[in-house]
Design goal:
Two copies of one chain form a homodimer.
Chain A lengths: L1 H16 L7 H6 L6 E3 L5 E6 L4 E6 L5 H12 L7 E5 L4 E5 L21 E2 L2 H6 L1 E7 L1 E7 L2 E7 L5 E5 L5 E4 L13 E4 L13 E7 L2 H4 L18 E8 L11 E4 L4 H11 L21 E3 L4
Amino acid sequence: MKQLALIAAAPLLLAMQAPETPQSPAEIVAATTEEDWRPILPENLLIMTLGDGGEVLIELAPGFAPIHVANIRRLAREGWYDGISINRVQDNYVVQWGDASGNKPLPEGIERDPPEEYDFAMGDTYLAEFVNVQDGHYEQYSGYLSGWPVGHSPREDGVRSGTLVHCYGMVGVGRGDNPDTGTGAELYTVIGHAPRHLDRNIALVGRVIEGIEHLSSLPRGTGPLGFYEGPGERVPIASVRLASELEEAAQPRFEVMRTDSAAFRAYVDARANRTGWFIRPAGAVDVCNVNLPIRRAAAD
Amino acid sequence: MKQLALIAAAPLLLAMQAPETPQSPAEIVAATTEEDWRPILPENLLIMTLGDGGEVLIELAPGFAPIHVANIRRLAREGWYDGISINRVQDNYVVQWGDASGNKPLPEGIERDPPEEYDFAMGDTYLAEFVNVQDGHYEQYSGYLSGWPVGHSPREDGVRSGTLVHCYGMVGVGRGDNPDTGTGAELYTVIGHAPRHLDRNIALVGRVIEGIEHLSSLPRGTGPLGFYEGPGERVPIASVRLASELEEAAQPRFEVMRTDSAAFRAYVDARANRTGWFIRPAGAVDVCNVNLPIRRAAAD
């Protein structure tokens, strides 16, 4: 796979120097080199296996919600998620899973009252790395930081504040009423138009990187808020494992396009200015329509 | 049902005069009167029945794409759609249906080469009725016009140009390469984050108003672009009927909240500034996250 990528890169790099027609997003991805990608570390990769064997792979975001992610890792290591179920599927909104009984005891070592990990200080280092995609919609700026969709705005006190953004496939922590922030035992993912009114109101902890179709194609719940109305409708979750707990040969390997790369900037620009079938390029792209490239990596 | 609405309206109208807490979107809807709603005319309502009996109801938008809509009405009246299938389900993008063989002859009277109905002149009358929701994202303004999501911007020649917007559930006309605009025999609906790069590139002709879960929960196609790979995977469409072709008693009745009403403006504002569970209101709402209220109407 590495060799193929290098072979493909040569003519496309020449094309970048003197393009006759703009490159498509797919051509830009094909022309990347290994340096344009970062691996997903096995301690940041969750493998959720449904009762029917369907696998949903989730990348965790410990840099943005370290305490909630620590809880989730512990719950996975302890096997706590095994045997819980998907309890809510609301069309154009979320799929949510957890312990339907609400009585399953949490293991030792879980932080019961994590702090609000809804936003963070957007300092100079982050600002330098941030790639802006859009201005003035929900946040002053929305774009990508360290491979994640992020918005940032000045707060009333003048401090610049960042937040992860609720794009399709992002994974968050269900919570009750404020000040509860949730433990991570109840999780959801977005299966519709980005519900950005949830930003800064709930902890985002990761994103589905493969297998979201096992969630998004589930029957919609017919109860209030899309909850399933009976135990027979709930979808069993067989297990949730951290890839780092598996033998090395069994660990799935993924790579994310580096968002601090020139390739990513070119990719965003190409997504905003589609060619071919398109006759009127939009000239813009929503932060949640960038579709950051994530790929299975070849084994070493 | 009308009586219930009136009873509910009285205390809420008082609350509007001297609100102690802001009304929620649901409270605003509950406080509307009949004047805040417009009916969906039976000649603008398609009933698509799937092979398993699931019903998908679609409101047509003849004011924006009259020639494509005339084709669709004719195809429905002639029973042309009966027996075609859903051939494509691409996650976070579209569900598409049509004649998988590509050989089914079109009936007489179909316009084979409709003009581009991708945009329209945004004159003073439309500007006066338009309710702006967001600035400067894809279009200079995006909001609602006559009950539909619309964006508008000045063109290079100074003329202001409007377009329907590809929100979740919007229905469009599949087409080949330009200058083909499609006849309406091949249709799709959006089942993911608004693909606004399609705006101004393809004719939007309506929206799913009920039953989209029968489409959005279908298994994703595993072929390129989410096409089903074999005839056994395709989902049969039993029939597509115009409500106006049914006996009056059998015609489903729906109402759309009038977007030129004070209630709609209040509703948009409440969607942008959620209370209750929310601790940090977004202060904004995406045109595709307004979730325009549409309801089943009581029989006369």
